[in-house]
Amino acid sequence: MELPNMEYMMRRRCDSAASVPQFTNSPTLIVMVGLPARGKTYISKKLTRYLNWIGVPTKVFNLGQYRREVQSYKSFEFFRPDNEEAMQIRKACASNALKDVVIYFSKEHGQVAVFDATNTTRERRVSIVSFAKEKGYKVFFVESICDDPDIIAQNIADVKVSSPDYLNCDKEEALADFLKRIECYKQTYVPLDDEKDRRLSYIKIFNVGSRYLVNCVRDHIQSRIVYYLMNIHVTPRSIYLSRHGESNMNLLGRIGGDSGLSPRGHKYATALGTFIKSQHIKDLKVWTSHMKRTIQTAEHLGIPYEQWKALNEIDAGVCEEMTYEEIQDNHPEEFALRDQDKYRYRYPKGESYEDLVHRLEPVIMELERQENVLVVCHQAVMRCLLAYLLDKTSDELPYLKCPLHTALKLTPVAYGCKVEHVFLNIEAVNTHRERPGNVDVSRDPEEALKTIPDHF
Amino acid sequence: PHACTVDSYGLSCFSPASVPQLTNSPTLIVMVGLPARGKTYISKKLSRYLNWIGVPTKVFNLGQYRREAVQSYKNFEFFRPDNEEAMQIRRACATNALEDVVIYFSKEHGQVAVFDATNTTRERRISIVSFSKEKGYKVFFVESICDDPNIIAQNITEVKVSSPDYVNCDKDEAQADFLKRIECYKQTYVPLDDEKDRHLSYIKIFNVGSRYLVNRVQDHIQSRIVYYLMNIHVTPRSIFLSRHGESELNLLGRIGGDSGLSPRGHKYATALGGFIKGQHIKDLKVWTSHMKRTIQTAEHLGIPYEQWKALNEIDAGVCEELTYEDIQENHPEEFALRDQDKYRYRYPKGESYEDLVHRLEPVIMELERQENVLVVCHQAVMRCLLAYLLDKTADELPYLKCPLHTVLKLTPVAYGCRVEHICLNIEAVNTHRERPGNVDITRNPEEALKTIPDHF
């Protein structure tokens, strides 16, 4: 197997959880399928959030938005299968959306596009498959099938009634119109067929996940998508994130290490325990890292907890246990490089935020499977988890504010997450260092140390 | 409250100090399917995987119980549904197997039992479900459905014709009898039913994995099992394992670090390239770690390679770049503790073999998905991968022999793996240290250093 010389030095980093080499892998077009109010947009957004977090550039193309741009919504009549004029408009929108997919893949370095539309007719799906084949894209269908009227009514109440389409309607009008809309689609809906579609790659999700049919998974990314979709659920629950109580190293402005809690840190742990009790949370799971400070914090809660090595703080390698002043003194160049690209920068003999995300992926997967969970962790770790839950970019992630002695309560709602910050009124040092103005390797120490937080 | 250690994937591991998690019920995996549908293949492979990730698992193969009870197999007539006497024996065997499952769970710390039998009647499955409910075990069915006569003929040739049942028959006789055996089962086979069995937890595998139906995954371990089963395949291929060429630190008897290759190491890399070319491997994927010595080795191959951080050598923490003599001098107690339990021992500020296994799990998963792969890695990493591929225990794993300058070619065959050791005839130091006789912390330096390999 001789290869042209230029490829001898070809080297692809396969360390992220995505493991999707950049240049030889065809982009993937995920095609949602299903009647309205079956959770397609919910799945599209959640899946996209997950893929972007693990490092696979992904974007949703929602046909409803394209349609709203060209036509202001009057009533369900727009969706009648015999409405020729509307059909033309809808076909044009689909074309435009797919054109934008092409731009996303060819010019914007996208790797996965999620085409969020009903795609309920065989004809529409056949045309998408040819389009994809012509362009060299892989296609993976995600069909959501639901016949439970309660779930559908809930979906409509959660996200449809408040949609831009129904801005000027009251709730009952909106509900009645939307149900008629669904009926329009039902007339021409042909689900993916066991026999006729046996060569397509797809997953069928029945009744919000009690059952799945998976056909012809063709590659790694499709396998990861299937695994993720099979682990998410919609049961109401809350995720609590907190750092350990203030540690002795925090007091000294030192990073990393494995120190115990300061007296104020112990106070916080007690306060956290009280807060948790007051929330009367059903079946709360508590997770900590393997480091003393999170374990000591959890000990005060009086609840069994599980220790995850994956939740350990970012390894600062040669900078472990140093103050920022010491880092500037001993490793000024490294210090600047980190400020230039805090997400990708890896401490010598340590880790990067990017490494952390990869290491946290199984934690996120298990968080998805669970219901009420309290995660007691560390600053960098919490930033990574928060970025996943709140869909923050890798540029924002390393600068997310996660102060000590503050619990975050995240509750999934509609397509996102409601966040409540609960400061438990126990003083602590600030450990947040903003990006300084000058990130040049040639900067002076004062410029480098401008944004470091105070410490003893 | 007691703390439970959880691996990176959320599975509770019992370290000697912690109390076993009383809330996790054991899981009974029940295979379902006609003969020659790959049930034993799946049972063994799944067990191998679960044990490797730290979930104690055991296969209970009904055929073995039957062979012990009936001593010599005559012909397919034993399996006729109207053979009352045989039916009694077969029922008794099933009962004995389930009794052994109870012992495995209650007295041998087992967590997963795989009941490898046809379980093709509804009646049999109902009785297993009641049995489990009574004992508090979770049940997960794995049904293998195959109607491709070529696959079945292949299976029969590979594993049935050479089974103990046919020890005195020639191949054609065995084949003919086995086909009649399958017909006996077909008469009473009732597959898991979409409607009637909708409350059971199961995965149906169609035609060796082109299609899966997954119903009611109850918990984390079932979700992992489903993910694993959906990633394995039976396409013939080979896995090549090699360490990097001899490194500069190897020559000095120092562990860890990130040094480049020695001159002999470079020679090996070239020889490896020659060997690989000589194998004429179709679409070979090459994986390395992020460390110089594996990358430099792969560079000589002239093939594109992918770098995995997960393949980095075990982190020896405070012992990085020390010789064994240095370790004995500076950390004699740690040195002894490591000899006492090499698998679980974690270097201060470093990792254990157990940590390594968890970090390598995504590599194993991707190895299962792939076909021909060459993994260029490190001694401890290679031991972990080899233990998975060859079903070695946690006790054997840290002492597996993985010498420098030797390629291992592993080819799946029947229920296991054929291994070929290929020494490429380039001299290298030995880096294998056997467990010394005295592992007590009170031992003297000579006893500790007795088994260290020579170095410059």
TrEMBL record, chain A:
One of its GO terms (molecular function) is ATP binding. SUPFAM superfamilies: P-loop containing nucleoside triphosphate hydrolases, Phosphoglycerate mutase-like. The active site is at H244, E313. Substrate binds at R243, H244, G245, E246, S247, N248, M249, N250, R293. Residues 18-236 form the 6-phosphofructo-2-kinase domain. Coiled coil: none annotated. It comes from the Eukaryota. The keyword Transferase applies. GO terms for biological process: fructose 2,6-bisphosphate metabolic process; fructose metabolic process. Gene3D superfamilies: P-loop containing nucleotide triphosphate hydrolases, Phosphoglycerate mutase-like. Homodimer. PANTHER family: 6-PHOSPHOFRUCTO-2-KINASE/FRUCTOSE-2,6-BISPHOSPHATASE, 6-PHOSPHOFRUCTO-2-KINASE_FRUCTOSE-2,6-BISPHOSPHATASE 1. Synthesis and degradation of fructose 2,6-bisphosphate. This is 6-phosphofructo-2-kinase/fructose-2,6-biphosphatase 1. It comes from Oncorhynchus kisutch (Coho salmon).
From TrEMBL, chain B:
It comes from the Eukaryota. This is 6-phosphofructo-2-kinase/fructose-2,6-biphosphatase 1. The keyword Transmembrane does not apply. InterPro entries: 6Pfruct_kin, 6Phosfructo_kin, His_Pase_superF_clade-1, His_PPase_superfam, P-loop_NTPase, PG/BPGM_mutase_AS. Homodimer. Pfam families: 6PF2K, His_Phos_1. The gene is LOC109908267. PROSITE patterns: PG_MUTASE. Residues 18-236 form the 6-phosphofructo-2-kinase domain.
